Amino acid sequence: MDIDLITNILYAMVRTGTPLLIVALGEMVCEKSGVLNLGQEGMMLMGAVAGFITTLLTGSLLFGFIVAMMAGMIMSQLFAMIALGLNANQVATGLALTIFGTGLSAFIGASYVGKPIEGLNAIAIPVLSDIPVIGKMLFAQDLIVYLSFVLFIAIWWFFRSSRPGLVVKAVGENPHAANAIGLPVMRTRYLAVAFGGAMAGLAGGYLSLAYTPLWAENMSAGRGWIALALVVFASWRAERVLLGAYLFGLASILHLVAQGLGFAVSPNIMAMLPYAATIVVLVMLSRNQGRSKMFAPISLGKPFHPAG
Amino acid sequence: MFFRLEPRGEQSRSMAYLSPVLAGLLTLITGAIFFAVEGQDPLFALKTLLYTPISDVYGLSELCVKAAPIMLCAIGLAVVYRANVWNIGAEGQLLMGGLFASAVAVNVIESDGFWVLPAVLIAGMMGGGLWAFLAAWLKTRFHANEILTTIMLNYIALNFLIYSVHGPLKDPDGYNFPESAMFGDSALLPTLVDGTRVHAGILFAMLAVVVIWVLLSRSFLGFQIKVLGLDASAARLAGFKDKKLIWIAMLISGALAGLAGASEVSGPIGQLVPQISPGYGYAAIIVAFLGRLHPVGILLASMLMALIYMGGEMAQIELGMPLAITGLFQGMLLFYLLACDVLITYRIKLKTKKPTLVRG
User: Fold this and answer.
1) Which residues, including other chains, have CB under 8 Å from residue B173's CB and lie 6 or more apart?
2) ipTM over cut 0.90
3) Which residues of B touch A92 (CB under 8 A)?
4) How many other CB atoms are found less than 10 A from the CB of residue B218?
5) CA geometry: angle at B29 spanning B27 and B31, to 5°?
6) How far is Cα B304 from Cα B306, in angstroms, rounded to an integer?
7) Among A41, A91, A107, the residue to mutate for chain B (most B Cβ within 10 A)
8) What pLDDT score does A208 carry?
9) At B5, phi and psi to the nearest 5?
10) Mean local confidence (pLDDT), A28-39
């Protein structure tokens, strides 16, 4: 394996891991507030289709990404209305969001399948991107990848050192106590869900505007679900989400590695890898029942009825 | 918000049955508005979607063809959901069923024994059952969340199916198309009515509905499954073997989905192709909820879901709308259902002014 191959694999790993990182960070914030939104896949697809159509019609990538985030956010509020506003089962509502988002995005995007757009270009930072091996991976990416680095640091800091981060955690751990000391439980949860939606939308937009630049039905291909597993894998910690996202990015591009090394493996067999890896990771983590329970926000998935 | 939710105290039975009807009505109204926005005559569009497909005998026969796999998957889901196990993997189990059935069928094309068809169908049930059991075992042995494992297994099954039709199961005389050889006559399900595609799969589905009905309402096993779903610790306290119950429920669910897949490849399709299911396994989740996990409800809801599939095709032909309209209506229906289900446990009260303290 020569240096060039390693450099390119690392570059592709970060690029492929980026949508997973963004959607998983969003979901992590949402889950920290005690809300389990299984609708990531649906919100990603809506972000992908809305962003793609916007960019196709306006020619502006910036508009595309903004609309993608808005689409994800609107979808998340649909979830919030039913799961938080009406106290419906969060698992079922999230599932419904995915089914609905998949259907709606396929419908909206039907006449846009296969249309070409000019995708987001990489911006190589001078000097830094010339560092051997890691230069290309960290400093020759596109803007959304750089944004995802910032996002990661911001969320890491948010939960580590900020007061609002503490509020979100309190609401997720014990909503009744949080309510009793006057923290706005419901408002925090709505906002956390909205943030998760915006991130899922952005991740979807990344797929259709930068990663593949095109729209295809179901193009997120389970990434929203993998992100949900990632949050468990990361035991709700940002730095582990980052690590996990890139590991899964690597698993998704292993076929490139195999090609580079001269192995001929069926692409369909290789395509199973990230899903199989997800199962393996889940098994390894859940083996010890107490462990994942210990890290999960205590009120995760449980509805909260404000007194009265 | 201008209304508030007031707990009913006990669950309303009538609301449990009314909620799907209400959700259906809301979907119709939203659908009408949606068609009007799209520039269609709303009434004509709804008629095209929901009535035209079944306005003749052939249409009704096609309804049975489409309802059969959905019903098989959904009735199996009713069993696991009663056990409070969230199997989202009916789609993957269906695909594995089709794959296993095809693996047997393409190897016995020449033989005409009476055992061929049963062998194909049993292989299908084993394929689906195995796929579901895998998730059940990961759950009971390693506590791996079954929602995520079954979803992942769906994607793996789909890739495995595509790999198979490109590789080991590809028809050697098939001009390199990703398809298996056509099955021999002895591996095909008999057609029930001449001139239609109605095959024995609908009989399997009906039979499954009856058997599961008996299982859930008349058998000790069904009782144990229901207790486990309502209160896992009570089930354990009563000495029920919870792991075994989860295994059995998942095996039943997977085997029925596998049978659905086997019936598709040896019924209307007649060979293994990459697209053996337009998401029947996912539609079955909606059907299970819509049918209130009750066999009769599932029978009716499967018909409705099959109709929406046909309506989507009809809307594509008659109105030039995308086929994806099916998924849109399915998703909308499920959303409204969950919203209406709130009425089972809560009363909606309009918000009135808060009483203020009267100071003397």
Assistant:
1) B181
2) no
3) 289, 338
4) 10
5) 65
6) 5
7) A107
8) 93
9) -100, 130
10) 93
Q: Where are the alpha helices (DSSP H) in chain B?
A: 13-37, 42-50, 57-82, 90-105, 116-142, 146-166, 201-218, 220-230, 232-237, 242-264, 280-290, 295-319, 325-340, 342-345
Q: List the beta bridge partners of residue B4.
A: B349
Terminal CA-CA length for chain B: 32
How many distinct structural domains can be found in chain A? 1
The predicted-structure confidence for B250-281, as pLDDT tens digits, reads as follows 999 999 999 999 999 999 998 999 999 998 99
Residue B143: which CATH number? 1.10.3470
Domain that holds residue B277: 3-350
Could you tell me how many residues make up chain A? 308
Kindly determine whether residue A99 and residue B282, on different chains, have CB atoms separated by under 8 Å. yes
Name the residue among B142, B330, B345 with its Cβ closest to that of A103: B330
pTM: 0.91
The answer to whether the CB of B257 falls within 8 A of the CB of B128 is yes
Q: How far is A202 from chain B (nearest CA, A)?
A: 22
Give whichever of A91-105, B43-57, B117-131, B338-352 has the largest mean pLDDT.
B117-131
Cα B269 from chain centroid (whole Å):
19
pLDDT of residue B354: 58
Does residue B54 sit within a domain? yes
Amino acid, single-letter form, for residue B187: A
Q: Which residue has the higher pLDDT, A167 or A295?
A: A167
CB-based contact A68:A120 (threshold 8 Å): no
Task: Report the number of distinct structural domains present in chain B.
Answer: 1
Report the run of H or E that residue B347 belongs to, with start and end. Answer: strand B346-350
Terminal CA-to-CA distance of chain A, rounded, Å?
Answer: 66
Model confidence at B359: pLDDT above 70:
no
* Residue B249 near residue B132 (C-beta atoms within 8 A): no
